[in-house]
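> run fold Extracellular solute-binding protein
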Amino acid sequence: MREFVDNELNARLKQELNMKLELTYIPWADYQSKVELALSTGENYDLFWYGTSFVSDYKTKGYIQPLDTLLRTYGQDLTAKIPADNFKQYEMDGSLWAIPSQAFTSAGKFTSVMVRQDLLESVGMKNIRTIADLEAFLYENACARSELLRVPGERSRSGRPLAGAVGSAAHLPR
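> ok
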């Protein structure tokens, strides 16, 4: 990612917007504590992710600023694409303090599935690109790994107990 940003993206940003993007990578496990520490010591970020539950606290501590004027001036694309109701959760004291990170709820739209590569390869697969691939992986993994939690009474095609991770056998491909 850093190579893409440093080489391709920043060249385009410089040419089209006269700006440079500098990314700070923070491991997800440490994200909240490191962002809080950086902000509390005065480190400036133009943009960072934080959840709805942090808006009031970050506003009170002075880590964020109202975005109404900036959004009216530079954010017409955002307001055109994000439903107005999504902004309401970030309004306090008559001002907007954050921009929704997605236009719609994440249920079903921004879902990610992560699978360990070693488990994928252990059942003869290289990647998952479709729901059918995911179903096949879950089925094969459940058949191959009897040490996983079991669903009482459910058995795979080979007669092995099914793992809890795949739920009922009724949902598996036959």
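The chain has three domains: 1-42, 52-107, 117-171.
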